[in-house]
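ARCHIVE CARD
CATEGORY: sequence design from structure
SOURCE FIELD: tokenized fold
FIELD CONTENT:
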């Protein structure tokens, strides 16, 4: 497993832990966003990192930024079901018609 793949696995594990540690939600989100942005500086078209970043931004209510990030993943050809779920959530919350 590559370093990036391992980092993405760690991100997914930490994302799951957020729901168990809601008192630290913002701190964990900040760590996740920083890690994913760092991964994207290395691999700018890493679809997994884009989808995860978009999901975290969506969960944080940063819908416009989430939409922009998720659209990049979509344009790159992602078929990740989480991409489509988060796109729909963002669009509904922004009053757009998915």
């Amino acid at each position: 497993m590559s370093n990036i793949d391992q980092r993405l696995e760690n991100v997914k594990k930490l994302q799951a832990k957020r729901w168990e540690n809601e008192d630290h939600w913002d701190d964990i989100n900040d760590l996740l966003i920083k890690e994913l942005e760092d991964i994207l500086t290395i691999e700018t078209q890493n679809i997994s990192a884009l989808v995860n970043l978009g999901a975290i931004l969506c969960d944080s209510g940063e819908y416009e930024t989430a939409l922009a990030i998720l659209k990049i993943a979509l344009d790159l050809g992602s078929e990740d079901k989480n991409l489509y779920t988060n796109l729909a959530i963002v669009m509904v919350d922004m009053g757009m018609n998915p």
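CARD ANNOTATION: The CA atoms of residues 4 and 39 lie 7 Å apart. The helical segments are 3-18, 25-42, 47-59, 63-75, 81-93.
SHELF: design records, drawer C
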